[in-house]
Amino acid sequence: MAKIQIQHKRLKDWVDKMARMCEPERIVWIDGSEVQKKQLEQEAVSSGEIIQLNQEKLPGCFLHRTAPDDVARTEHLTFICTKRKRDAGPNNNWMSPQAAYRKAGAIFIGAMKERTMYVIPFSMGPVGSPFSKVGVELTDSIYVVLNMLIMTRVGSAVLMHLDKDGEFTKCLHSKAQLDINKRLILHFPEDNTIWSVGSGYGGNVLLGKKCLSLRIASFIARKEHWLAEHMLIMGVEEPNGHIGYIAAAFPSACGKTNLAMLVPPQGLKVKNYRIWTVGDDIAWMRIDSDGSLWAINPETGFFGVAPSTNSKTNPNMVATIKKDTIYTNVLLKPDGTVWWEGADGDVPQEGIDWQGRAWKPGSLDANREPIKAAHANSRFTTPIANCPTASYRLEQHHGVPISAIIFGGRRAHLTPLVYESFNWQHGVFVGAAMASELTAAQVGKLGEVRRDPMAMLPFCGYNMSDYFRHWLDTGKCMTKPPKIFHVNWFRTDKNGKFLWPGFRENLRILEWILQRSSGKVRAKETAIGYIPFHSDIDMTGLVLGEDALDELFAINKKDWLEELKRIKKFFKQFKKDLPEELWQEYEALSKRLKE
Ligand code: OXD
Ligand code: MN
Q1: How far is 124 from 133, CA to CA, in rounded Å?
Q2: How far apart are CA 564 and CA 586, in angstroms?
C-alpha cells in the first residue's frame, strides 16, 4: 500500500490518541487507489466479512450481512452532546459531552485489539469546493471502508486539500462487540466530532452520511448561513434545454430515490423531458451571488432500500446496481446473484436469506409468519456515476440552482396530492408541520404517524426551534427564493387503495410545480395553499377512477382542524423558543379553515 506522508500535525496527533484508546494491531491509511481497494476486497472476502457475488453477472459486486439486531438506524441510541441540553432541543436525545465521552470511551478502550484501524480521509462535496466539508473516519470495519469509497470522495487528494492545518470532522467508529447494549451514536457538534460504537449498519457507521452531512453539517450550516437538508436533488430538462432543479424532502423510505431518477411516463413521452439525478438523500444549499439557492449533493453514492426496487418502480436504479455495488442483508441465490421481495424475476426456489440461513419460498418462522428472504430495510451501496441519469453537474463546485423545494410525507388521509405555500414563511410552516407514517428505515412501529419537520426530525443536530428560525432567516436573505410545495403520493380511498399510481406518474405533478415556479400556470387558492385546477395537470395516457382527482385534492376542513391540534401539541414542546412567525402561520391557517 502506498505510504502517505501526513503533514497535518493535529490530524496525526488525533489518530495517535484514538489508537492509544482503541489499541488496534496496526493502522492503515486509505489512499483512495484502485489497488488498495482491491486488496481490501480480497481481505474482506477471505475473512468472510463480504461475499463475492457472480462476477460475470454482477461485476465488482459483494454481499454483506449485518447482525440481526443491527439492521436500521437506532434513533434511541443516537445522541446530540452539547454543553447545554437546550441546544440539542426536545427533538434530540441529549447527553453531556463529558458523560458521553466517558460512557463511549469505556466501550472504545481496547475495542480494536487484534484488528486494523483504517484511517479514511473523505470529502463531502467536490474536493476543494466552497460547499464541501472534510471528515476523517477511523474504523475497524473493511465494510465501512468499502462503502465510504462508494459514498464519498476518499484518499490522498483530500489529505492534500487539508494540507497542514485544514478543518475536518473527527469521526471515530468501532464495531466493538456489535452489542446492542453497548451501542452509541454520539455527535459532539461543538467539537466537530462523531463517535459511533457497537454497530455495523450503514446509517450508524458511514459517518459521512447522516452523522456528518446532516447532524453535524446542520449545526455548522446555521453558523455559516447555509442549509444542510434531507433532500433529493433532481433536474427536469425541457426539450429547449432548460433544466429546472428541484430539492425534495421526504422521510426515510418514502421514495426519494425513485423520484430522483424517474423515467417519464408513457403519456408524457412526446414532451421529451429528460431527468437528471444530482442526489437522492442529502442537499447542501447556499445562497449564491445571484440571490438564489444553489445545491450540491455531498455524496457520490446511493445507499438505497432494496425491497420493491425493480424495473417498474426504478429501472434506472436496476441498471445502476448491476456493477460495483455492495448489497447488504438481501437473499443470496445459488447462482451467486441476489434477490429481495419485490425484485425483478421469479421468486427463487431456494437461497440463503439475509440472516445466512437456507431459505425457500413459503418458509415460516416460529409464529408461522413467512420468513423474509431480504430484510425490509436491506440496502445497496452503489456509485451515482453508474446511474444512467447521473447529472453532468455532479462535480460542479457551486452545484445547481433550485427552482422549487418540495416537502412530502406518507399520509393515507388529509393532505392533497400537491399544494403550494403562499410564500416562504408559510412554506417554512408547511415544512415544520410535516408528518409521515413510519417505515422500515427506523426502528419503531410501522404505519404510526409521527411529526417529521422537513424530514429532519432524526437528523437535525440542534434545537429544531433554532432550525426553524434559521429557515425563516434564510428566506429573508434571498432575492429569488424557490417556491415551497407539499406533496403526498400516498393518499388512499375509503377501501385503503392508493388513489395515485405514484412512481413515474409523479412527473405530472413535478411539471405543474415547475410551471408554477416559473409563473406559467394559474392555481386555485384554498385555506391550506394553492392547488392545481384539474385541467392544468397533464393526464395524457393516465386513467384514474372517476372521482380520484376530486378525492386527491379534497381538503376536509374538519380533518385539518384536528391536524392543527396535533401540530399545536408538537409546536408546544419547543415552548417559548418556537419562532413567533410559526404561531402566526398556525393562527392564520386556523382562521382560514374556520372561514
Ligand atoms: C437513509 C435514511 O438511509 O434516511 O437514507 O434512513
Ligand atoms: Mn435518508
Answers
A1: 5
A2: 8
Report the separation in Å between the CA atom of 251 and the middle of ligand 2, taken as the mean of its atom positions.
7
Identify the sign of the CA torsion 95, 98, 101, 106. negative
Residues 6+ positions from 16 with CB-CB distance below 8 Å: none
Asked if the model's pLDDT at residue 4 lies above 90, the reply is: no
**Separation in Å, CA 455 to CA 4, 161, 338, 378:** 40, 32, 31, 21
Whether the Cβ atoms of residue 575 and residue 526 lie closer than 8 Å to each other: no
**Cα gap 306→342, rounded to integer Å:** 9
Q: Within 10 Å of residue 106's Cβ, how many Cβ atoms?
A: 11
d(Cα 522, Cα 501) in Å, to the nearest integer? Answer: 25
Name the band, by pLDDT with cuts 50, 70 and 90, for residue 254.
confident
> Which residue, judged by its Cα, is nearest atom 2 of ligand 1?
252
> Which residues are CB-contacts of 276 (< 8 A; sequence separation ≥ 6)?
234, 235, 236, 237, 243, 389, 390, 391, 392, 393
Per-residue model confidence (pLDDT) at position 252: 84
Round to whole Å and give the CA distance between 341 and 339: 7
d(CA 135, CA 266): 44
281 lines ligand 1 (CB under 6 A): yes
* CA 442 remoteness from chain centre: 12
- CB of 136 within 8 A of CB of 119? yes
Phi, psi torsion values for 38, nearest 5 degrees: -60, -40
Strand ranges, E, within 415-469: 418-420, 435-437, 449-451
Q: Which three cell numbers stand for residue 393?
A: 453537474
2: pLDDT strictly greater than 60 = no
Ligand 1 atom at minimal distance to the Cα of residue 230: 4
Cell numbers describing residue 331: 437473499
What one-character DSSP code corresponds to residue 2? P
Give pLDDT tens digits for 289-309. Answer: 999 999 999 999 999 999 999
The interaxial angle of helices 34-47 and 142-151, nearest 10 deg, is 140
> Is the distance from CB of 461 to CB of 189 less than 8 angstroms?
yes
For residues 80 and 85, what is the distance between their CA atoms, to the nearest angstrom? 9
Our answer on whether the CB atom of 441 is closer than 6 Å to any ligand 1 atom is: yes
Q: Is 457 in the pocket of ligand 1 (CB under 6 A)?
A: no
Residue 316 C-alpha to ligand 1 middle, in angstroms?
Answer: 19
What SS3 string covers 427-441?
HHHHHHCCEEECCCC
Residues facing 196 on adjacent strands: 173, 185
Give the pairing of strands 26-29 and 116-124. Answer: parallel
Give the distance (Å) from ligand 2 centre to CA of residue 9: 35
Distance of alpha carbon 268 from the chain centroid? 29
Question: Any catalytic annotation for residue 254?
Answer: yes
